[in-house]
Amino acid sequence: EVQLLESGGGMVQPGGSLRLSCAASGFTFSSYAMGWVRQAPGKGLEWVSGMSGSGGNTYYADSVKGRFTISRDNSKNTLSLQMNSLRAEDTAVYYCAKVPSTFFQGSFDYWGQGTLVTVSS
Amino acid sequence: DIQMTQSPSSLSASVGDRVTITCRASQSIRNYINWYQQKPGKAPKLLIYAATSLQSGVPSRFSGSGSGTDFTLTISSLQPEDFATYYCQQSYSISVIFGGGTKVEIK
Questions:
Q1: What is the pLDDT of residues B33-80, one digit of tens each?
Q2: By C-alpha distance, which of B79, B104, B96, B103 is closest to B34?
Q3: How many CB atoms within 10 Å of residue A27?
Q4: A58 in contact with B, Cβ within 8 Å
Q5: Could you tell me whether strands A10-12 and A115-119 are parallel, antiparallel, or unpaired per DSSP bridges?
Q6: Fewer CB within 10 Å: N-end or C-end of chain B?
Q7: What is the pLDDT of residues A50-80, one digit of tens each?
Q8: Residue B1's pLDDT is what?
Q9: Alpha carbon B48 to chain centroid distance?
Q10: A98 to chain B nearest CA, in Å?
């Protein structure tokens, strides 16, 4: 059974940093691209970042480019999102999601339960 | 960037109704569209991928159609557990874009 478990969310002041993690199990992690999708309170879904299965290709939404860094450790089946220079508008539930391909293109076929990030002074 | 315009933003329907949700892309995305269902407080769930393919385990009352710029998600006979918000998503370009969502409510 595919499982994705996010952690690392919490409250942080504007300008601060936070690191999210996603522990994956139930599939060959290194064979699949992964992504992060967020949802601000009461709003729709917004893609944040994606990475190929090998980790060789990374992609970012314009809204987070230069502030967020996606990474993965295929030996530990873990996906991470380092978030720096956080802003109030980054407040959201962050979901880790699996792509059914080694390349970052396609649907998100499995999702984690999400972790809440709140940016507030 | 490709824009995805989803309509309507909300609708009211009764159990047993046929429901249609539309998504229009700002340029051709061939068949690179996916549909998700999200219930309050839960993660999205993939329903349809590549415009018409039903994800494993999803009831056959859900179907997708379209190609190019105009796409449709249809629920043939609405069930109580189908009241949720639905999103389209284009995967033609690397820059993933979701539609604004359609909230399906009980009439």
A1: 999 999 999 999 999 999 999 999 999 999 999 999 999 999 999 999
A2: B96
A3: 16
A4: no
A5: parallel
A6: C
A7: 999 999 999 999 999 999 999 999 999 999 9
A8: 85
A9: 8
A10: 11
What would the two tokens of residue B56 be? 């494993």
Confidence at B106, pLDDT banded by 50, 70, 90: confident
| Nearest Cα residue in chain B from A41 | B41
Distances (CA, A) of A116 to A30, B41, B61, B98: 26, 11, 33, 20
Of the candidates A118, A94, A99, the one whose C-alpha atom is nearest the C-alpha of residue A109 is A99
Q: What is the Cα B30 distance to its own chain's centre?
A: 16
Closest by CA position to B5, among listed B104, B84, B100: B100
Residue type at position A47: W
Q: What are the φ and ψ backbone dihedral angles of B29, each rounded to 5 degrees?
A: -120, 20
DSSP-derived secondary structure letter, B55: P
* Interface residue B8 vs chain A (CB under 8 A): no
Torsional class of B49: left (φ above 0), alpha (ψ -120 to 50), beta (otherwise): beta
* Peptide bond preceding B8 in cis form (omega within 30 of 0): yes
Q: Which residues of A71-83 are buried (b: 16+ CB within 10 A; e: fewer)?
A: ebeeeebbbbbeb
Q: Which residue has the tokens 């480019």?
A: A65
